[in-house]
Amino acid sequence: MNDSQTTLIKTNPFQSGWWRRWGEETFAAYAFLLPSILVFIIFTFFPVIFSIVASFLKWNLPYKASFTGVENYTSLINGPVTSPIFWQSVGNTFYFMLGIPINMILALFIAISLNRRLPGVAIFRTAFFLPTITSMAAVSVVWMWLYHPADYGLFNSLLIELGVPVQRWLRDPALAMPCLILMGVWHGMGYNIVIFLAGLQAIPRELYEVAEIDGAGTLAKFIYVTWPQLSPTTFYILVIGVINSLQAFTEIDVMTQGGPLNVTTTLAYYLYQEAFQYFRIGMGSSVAVILFILLLALTLLQFRGLESKVYYE
Amino acid sequence: MNETITQLPGQPRMHTAIFGRRPQKALSAGVWYLILGFVSLLVVIPFIWMLSTSFKSANEVFSYPISWLPNQLRWENYVNAWKAAPFARYFFNSFFIAFAVTFGQLISCSLAAFAFARMNFKGKNFMFTLFLSTTMISTQVTLIPSFLVIKYLNWQDTYQGLIVPFLANAFGVFMIRQAFLSLPRELEDAAKLDGCSRLRFLWQIAIPLTRPVLSAQALFAFMGNWNSYLWPLVVTNRQEMRTLQIGLRYFVSQEGGTQWGVYMAAAVMVTIPVILFYFLVQKSFVEGIATTGIKR
Lengths: 313, 296
Fold this sequence. Notes:
The complex is a heterodimer.
Chain A: H1 3-11, H2 18-54, E1 57-58, E2 66-67, H3 71-78, H4 82-96, H5 99-114, H6 121-133, H7 136-146, H8 154-161, H9 176-201, H10 205-213, H11 218-247, H12 250-255, H13 267-277, H14 281-308
Antiparallel strand pairs in A: 1-2
Helix pairs in contact in A: 2-14, 3-4, 4-13, 5-9, 6-9, 9-11, 10-11, 11-14, 13-14
Chain B: H1 2-7, H2 14-19, H3 25-54, H4 58-61, H5 76-84, H6 87-118, H7 124-133, H8 139-152, H9 159-163, H10 170-181, H11 185-193, H12 198-209, H13 211-226, H14 230-235, H15 244-254, H16 260-292
């Protein structure tokens, strides 16, 4: 670059300051980000804003949309027709979360038992992990067969062996949700076991050795070493579990379609029904916004938790 | 120092430290084998029952008391399932979509990760926060507007409608960025001195050096997309555009729910490829989850 060019750049107001220093690199960097940014704008940021706007509209396809203010929200909260289903789906969503603590307790016990160097442990680990990698749609079909209401259904033939009357499982309003929870625990446990195992293996051996020297037994070591050391892992699994259950959809759609008597209609499924079965875009969007706020709060909680690591050494 | 402690006579090692002292070790190992064996058997029973039912005749399927093994291996359920629904097409769709999404994500994520890891630009922190903020937004929340976008573009029942919305992934950007950050600065300086452009450095040096991270990312992208359900359910209507998961769901619900031998044969066809694939890449998959905590 010769002298005359340098002076030209210096005197040009558009070529001074940050543009000269950052210009080329900034331009290149945004070119690198462009593919991701485009997809995020169209399929993430625009939809969030759109959902918020649409939640204030009365918009039943194929009719045109009209502004109704907070009417969608008020009818969800205390409208005569929609509010019973909405509150039932809120209740069902929390009921469904009962699977999380069950899953965590089982996964922790299994992870502790798998955390030893004995031949064959890899086979067990694979067995526990198998359900997790299999698609939810496929395992839902398999479990529909296990829950078959006739006596040749696997669960029913087991009950007959035990002398208990046969059940209607997924078709019984009292049992449908527990059935989904049981299958969810079975499907999700492998993932939690892997995370717990990683957490267990990160605990320094010396802590156990020191506890031994102090005369701690198996239980004491679990309470004073394993459990506090695992707390970041446990917290992570808890939050991921809550987020996943808030979004659970596949097993409900394949196995029960929200029934019988709406006992398995969770918030996520209710959203789908409003928007894609009744074509009430406005109503569906207000459910989406409620779900969005719930998920956002939980994700922020997770970041906060990971930041503080829950437990400091 | 640890060494001397662990090797002192009578001092238990890590695994015995959790489960008991050495004299009890043999007994406790036996008990643990029994319990673990029993529990893992319970876990695989649904798979065993699926396989067994898939080989049974209709009469055997609907007979009580149940039999654990079919009295002969009948393949006709598989033939019938394959004939009754276009499973070959479903396989192709699932494979093509998952492959395209994985490939596209690797490109878009590597490019963005490179910008965040190795370049200085105005608004970098803001953009990075913006990218990370997308991880807080779930599919359900964007479902209705994304569907309306696809409808507006006339992309229902098209491959682009099933692929394009997934071509960006903030988790992927984050993971690959971490890998790129670990590359030494001198490497880039040397490359620059030799007149190597950014893109060429990314393609010929950065990507080959971070292969393990990229392949873990590819694995997650592929499996996540292969198993995805809600989006393909919403944007496909025509049978020939369905993925395996959606095809299986309609196959079972439309037949009236009686031919369980055939359904289980279909379920086996859907699950076995994934299980075989898992056995091939098991190690990197489990390690990937353990280090990143990402499933999808």
